[in-house]
Structures
1.
Amino acid sequence: MRVEDQTAGTRFEAAVLPHLDAAYNLARWLTRDDHAAQDVVQEAYLRALKFFGSFRGGDGKGWILAIVRNTCFDWLKQRRAQDLHEPFDEEIHTPDYDRAGRTMGGAAGNPENSAVSSITAERLDAALGQLPADYREALVLRELEGLSYKEIATITNVPIGTVMSRLARAREQLRKRLHLEREEL
Amino acid sequence: MDCARALELLHGYLDNELDALHVREMETHLETCPSCHAEQEQELKLRSLLAAQAQRYTAPAQLRSRILGSVRTVPRARSLRDWVPMGWMQFGGAVATAVVLSSAVTYYSVVATNTNRVMDEVVASHVRSLMTNRLTDVASSDQHTVKPWFNGRIDFAPLVKDLSEQGFPLVGGRLDYLDGRPVAALLYRHRQHWVSVFMWPDQAGRDTATRRFSRSGYNVAQWSSDGLRFYVVADIAGPELGEFVAQLRSENLPR
């Protein structure tokens, strides 16, 4: 019993702790807030701990990321419900894209700005932040975590075809916002 | 392959998710179709932009220690004891040994061991309530709803204060069982963080200064006053916890 206990505890830490950066990155992109991301990730790890018995080994990264994204979507849902009842806390909740959105609007009538070289990290950040959460999620998992369609499908619990179409739509929207439009021929 | 189909498969192609047959068809099409080729160029631009400029956030060090802290505390809770990490097993063994020997050691070391055990219980209860989402038995931000709820459930009057103006809105209360007796637990919120306040009668009836501890990444404050013993647990920073305790202990607010 004692030996098993030790093995399981060590197994948990070995299986999911190495993926903390990936977990935080996903939560940070989904919540768009450092504090919230930290809270969500901690909550996710506690959930993971609780359900570790159901982890059958294998892909620890996919397993923990699935829990993180579910916790994130719970948080987003809860916050939406809360916002209906509570006065809006500007300091915490001002979404990054509000500020950036205005900047982007200014750039809209200015086609010269569309050259790739002129797109700053800030603008890209804002444009990514404006994508719907499930598009943003697919893009973050693909472009920043380098996961395959199959892995993303498992984590987000949708068919592979949906992953592909979400990525296509996410990129299309992103290009529109960055004025990397399809060339008119 | 026509253009519509090529555009549909372009993402899979650039993501290396197509089988060999489709890859060959795509290559042939892209060589002969300037429109789809231009589209591919734009997609490649977006990809290199994302690779170069999109931020991959890394977990702050404090988050890592918070998680390690809670991961190593929580297994002491009953439902999770299936896999207590090694360090805690040894610690548990030490506590068990201390308990066995307690009849032979002095009063003071028994008290010290007890305080440590109670503090572990208090932190574990805070973590467990957040983990299982059993935050409150009575959910209300109104002290006049929460306080009477405890009538008949515990044999003392808990201190329930409305601290919403001080930035700590009351969320509710619940019953808990700590230190071998039913206790009152109140939950306050501070931004995205939860603050648990546990209280039960202090048999010695002392009035003590606030003592602060850190346990498994949580800040804990403890004191006795007005015949009650208080423990506050939260993952907020020391100064914020100090502010909360000061507000809770302040005499200016109605009880």
2.
Amino acid sequence: MLFRTIVAAVLAVTGLMASQDLGTAAAQTQRDEQFYYPGDFNWKFLAIYPEAAQLFNAFDYGHAVLYERLYTKRGSVGRELEKEYRYLTTDLLVRPPRFAVAEEVIMPAYSKLAWRAKMMFDWAHLLHRQIYDAYADDRLAPVQRDTLIERLTDYYLSNRRYAFTDKPKTMALMDEQYFSQAFRKTYPTFNGLIWAYHWLQVGLYEPFIEGQTRAERKSGVQATVARFWSMLEDPPSRFPRYMPMAPAIAPRFSAAHPRAAVIFDNLHMMHDIISDILTADTIPYHRKGQMIEQQLDKLQDPSRDVMSLDEWRRMADHMGGLPAMGGPATGLLREVPRHHHPGMQHPEAEPADSAPARKGRPQERADTTAHQH
Amino acid sequence: MQVLRTAATAAGLSLCFLIDPLAAQIDYRNLDDDRPVLSEDAYPVERYAFELLAPYRFEAEADGTELHSTVPELAYGFARNAHIGLKLPLAAVNDDAGTDWGLAGLRLFALYNFNTESRWLPALSLRADASFAVGSLAGDGTRFALKAIATRSWGRLRTHLNLSSGFGSDDALSSVEPLSRWSASLALDRTFFRSSVLLIGEVAASQAAGGDATSVNASLGGRWQWTPTLVLDAGITRRLRSGVGPDFAFTIGLSHAFAIRALMPAQ
């Protein structure tokens, strides 16, 4: 009887919170998960191109663990990130998970700090995945595929709480705030890895658009993935020197689907902004969540801090051009651009295809018979 | 006739999986009630998602009775942070008198999740169930239950506390998953993110009706993301008190999440 009374009391309290919206929980952040756009094109990317699709699962881990370590390991972030970098590049990327990583498991503290940011990233990553699924579905004619991608973008934008704006945001948000660039300057190697992720995430659209047959698309995807692997040789010299932007890395995709390309650039910009917020000593620990919220507001606002589509398309040139962003994602690349980062010594550049293939890596070097674009 | 109805339902369920009309969610961490342990997590089905469950359960009771059951379930995320659903339990009961087949009630439920987990608060949800006496094994009365659910995580570990209070007719209860007078369960799960596996352990106590003995059972189970569209779960249960609860119970099930384009924005 006593137990039943306790159960009834708990239920009554919970019910009160529901009915009066007065409880602490009711004032908390809601989970707000939403299902993805249905269709039998879903999961085609994973089924046909697992060597690329599964890498993206490992990328999700990389993003998640970065934020968790930056937020929770203030005294030893450098050591922790070195350890995670080794784990990622020698283990998880080599044998990536079959399915999406439950990011809450990897970043429990960060998820509680910035649930909205986590949801916005998840929502945009879902769009990424579904557009790859559309490209991977051989049953779709190009017109049907492009129509589907626009519909997927509409669906993405219909979730206004968690969609980035499809208007290009000014680079000043990423580069010119008082905390900007803190992460990339403090942890250039890990930052380079993140930018290499972003290079592949947008660049991989190109071989799908170039390839006319499944075989051509398959070999093109493998070549682009191989180029990603070559970026990991001799870090950080081969990593992108600037955040890869869609018009530079994925020009065909950006021309065909500018809204989605803009969304991905805004997403990647927000990735960097959050890394900077979590790294910067100039933002007190207790204000980091609030600052992330403010920046999310900016990245969702279509009316301020924006540039025109023409400016967006030309922006890569102002930022060092395609070579600074990791180079093209298709065509022959005998050598991935090698950059000298301040304070680091690097050997002379070598042809990308002269480096020994690492055990366990699934890809060969880029196809040397492909043509240059 | 009942056997035919049961067979038709099973065939229909099988067909649902075979036609695979739409893709599903990566949801091996979405802990549903009785899949495979009694406890569920505090999170609902995603907005616009349907989740279809097709389980099988075998129980060997202390008095020698054997129970075979399947409880097909469909849930729908009809609003943000809320879902509704129905269950249609079917059972076969073997005892000294022979074997009875039949429908074991019709159950409707709704769940609302107040919050995602924060630094200080667990995720909290409230669930309401109604069970109607439809079918030969459904008992004699209508019953209702309210359940409070809390989920708290520590990295790869999560705990789930479920507290439920039932009311309504105390006449003969359904043979399958009756809405107990009260129940309480505490579950602990661990995520293995590389293999997409969730392992769960649980202790649950319940009193089916006023005057009944309190059962205390321990369960172990797992959920595995089999394909992008299917989750396979399995579990075992054993009573911890003599004479009350199953000597042994085993369950296995499949869950499949999907959406219907016509019900979504931006069609």
